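Hi team, as promised in this morning's meeting, here are the two structures we talked about. I've kept the exact order from the run log so nobody has to guess. The first one is mostly here for context; it's the second one we should focus on when we meet again. Sequence first, then the predicted structure tokens.
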Amino acid sequence: MSNLLIRAASGAVFVSIMIFCIWHSLLATAILFSVLVAIGLDEFYKMSNALEGVRTNRLLGITLGTYSFVSAFLFILGYISYHWVLFSLIMLVIGLLFELFRKSQQPIVNSALLVFGLFYVVAPFYTMLLLRGTQTDQWMFLVGMFVLIWTNDSFAYLTGRFLGNNKLFERISPKKTWEGTIGGIVFAVIAGYLVATWIQDDVIFWMVAALLVALGSIFGDLFESMFKRNAGIKDSGNIMPGHGGVLDRFDAALFSAPIFYLWLLFYS
């Protein structure tokens, strides 16, 4: 019970900070996301280095990813030119060339994981920043997306715990069931209807978005579980008591955010 209370308390604090920053301003959101990007990259490269023979340049990956995220944000606001954003490509090339001198066992794998970490962590958080936008009421789209993700995760867990019998992907995630997966999707779609009603927006958009977000959440969760299982670790980090690391908390959003953003562009 104490572990459940710790998990609930840390989750409540985290959600409160998230919603406050997203509601407050794009700048507050960017600052929070910059911290999460840096921590998420650190977790990713630590997991990568737990693989046999793999030694990615963790410091370079964190520096490159955080710089890319911050410079792209400043470019959106018009504070810097696109040349500063393109500088991250030069840093990436230098990082890849660095493998020539490291004499590591898996230079190609190291390079591939260095690049993949940027796409896996930085790109989705940047998509979330675009969802937040600069308009006063645009924050509701990002908060609404997180509501759908949290609803899917919570009810998938509850439905699976009380009704789950048939395993979804036992090889990757032994506790996930088909019943829990379906339950999470159903309640996410209901949440989509409620979000649309709350913000007085298009019901069809939000119910379809809920379905897409739920599917993205499922695959995002399974992908991270596969990565952790391959690396032989339980959690990506321990920054959040009862929840693990940033990647554990955002595994669903890393897949769902780009899908939600593309759906928003398509529907608009």
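And here is the second protein, the one for discussion:
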Amino acid sequence: MVDLQMISVILAASGLLVGATYYILILRNAEKTRRTQLFMNIYNRFYDREFQKCYLKMLHNEEWNSFEEWWGKYGPSNLEHYSGWMAWGTYFAGIAMLVKQGQIDPQQVSDLLGTYILWSWERYKSIFKEIRARSEVRKRPQLSDWLEYLYHEMKKVEPSTSL
């Protein structure tokens, strides 16, 4: 026969099980909320009007025939332009770090920014590679390393062209 002590133990164990299950659900929801907030921060930054001005100016208005020409026209001597160029580069580098650390899903990044990432790397690959070759600091990943990493991650998840 079941006595009062056994019922008490069963109820206590059931309470712990319900509490643990509830806690796990709360943690999962908090993680989902955190990831959503992170993703929205990325989204909001990219579609900020000033950020878009810098990005579009860089992507569509720059013309050059050699690294030296690009460096002379758009490098550090043109602080206004170069700071915009660095802003989008470090933005994509930050996203690359989040992707590499598993903090954000590469497919989400591809769905929102994949085309821009692919265009950016393909347009500036030669510039980045030349900056990388001339850089004296190679102990840590540079901006171009992260953008190249992100480019390759986007290529892995980019949608198929055949439907």
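Starting points for discussion:
Helices lie at 4-46, 49-61, 67-74, 79-100, 106-134, 143-157.
The two ends are 66 Å apart (CA to CA).
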